[in-house]
Amino acid sequence: MKRAKSLARLNGRILHVFSRRTTTALRAALPLRLALPHLEPVLLLNVIKEVEKDTLVILRARELAAENPPDWNEVLPQLMQATKEIDRLFLARVGTFPVEIVIRYDEIAPIRARRMRLLYDAALKSLAAEHSRHRLRVAMQKAFTRDEFAQLLYELFRLYAEEARCLSRSVRLPRLLTPLRELIAQEMLNVMLQVARPLALEIATTALLPPTTKADPAPKMEA
Predict the structure, then answer these.
(1) At what angle do helices 32-65 and 72-94 cross, to 10 degrees?
(2) What does the alpha-carbon distance between residue 203 and residue 150 come to, in Å, rounded to a whole number?
């Protein structure tokens, strides 16, 4: 359980770095600069939601890592239902801001399912019995090459961005910005993807190594 919790904490740090970097990039992009005061509170709460959801997936994978994991189609409905409770808490937090948001499950559920499957499989691989005698850093090094880890992170970031785009399309905007809703949502996705690729490579290159000195360093692996 200790390594699973360490993996969940690492994942949380990675998502917070992605969120900070994308928010900085979004502030420099038009028309996002106009809409960001309305979107930023949602994005800040969304990263908390995603960390909670991912932690749920990782801990569930840890429960099954020592067994013969059941078919994903058996695991998915349980996880999806649990994430809806996390969504409910997210909407309650958003309700304290002057915005409205509706979670469109017809759009979000397929994206969320793909992202959870990727994370679940990666967690199973990292926490597999053959790696149980190793510290998390070594287990990750044995489970993934740098390129494999970078591609995994990019895909997780991409799906994160796709779900954030769906959320942004349902945020209430001022009347003058309403006609630009789809453009704003697409531009936000484009900016997040521009951030995702180099950040994924940076983390894959540095996270498993001793820490480096940077203003916003890629998260390092716990022992």
Answers:
(1) 140
(2) 7
The number of C-alpha atoms within 13 Å of 150 and in the hemisphere containing its C-beta is 13
If we measure between CA atoms, which residue out of 215, 213, 219, 185 comes closest to residue 199?
219
Distances 100 to 90, 118, 150, 170, 189 between C-alpha atoms, Å: 12, 30, 35, 8, 20
Q: How many residues make up the chain in this entry?
A: 223
Q: The tokens of 214 are what?
A: 């940077």
At 64-115, the pLDDT tens digits run 766 676 788 889 999 999 999 999 999 998 877 766 788 889 999 999 999 9
pTM: 0.86
| Residue of higher predicted confidence among 180 and 106 | 106
Residue 81: its H or E element: helix 72-94
pLDDT value at position 223?
41
Can you tell me which residue has the tokens 């099954």? Answer: 64
Nearest alpha carbon to residue 57 among 75, 42, 73, 41:
75
Cis peptide before 31 (omega within 30 of 0): yes
Domain ranges of the chain: 2-206
Q: What pLDDT, in 10s, does the model give residues 13-50?
A: 999 999 999 999 988 876 667 777 777 888 889 999 99
Count of CB atoms situated within 10 Å of the CB of 114: 16
Question: Sign of torsion, CA 46 148 21 182?
Answer: negative
**Token pair 């994308």 is at which residue?**
22
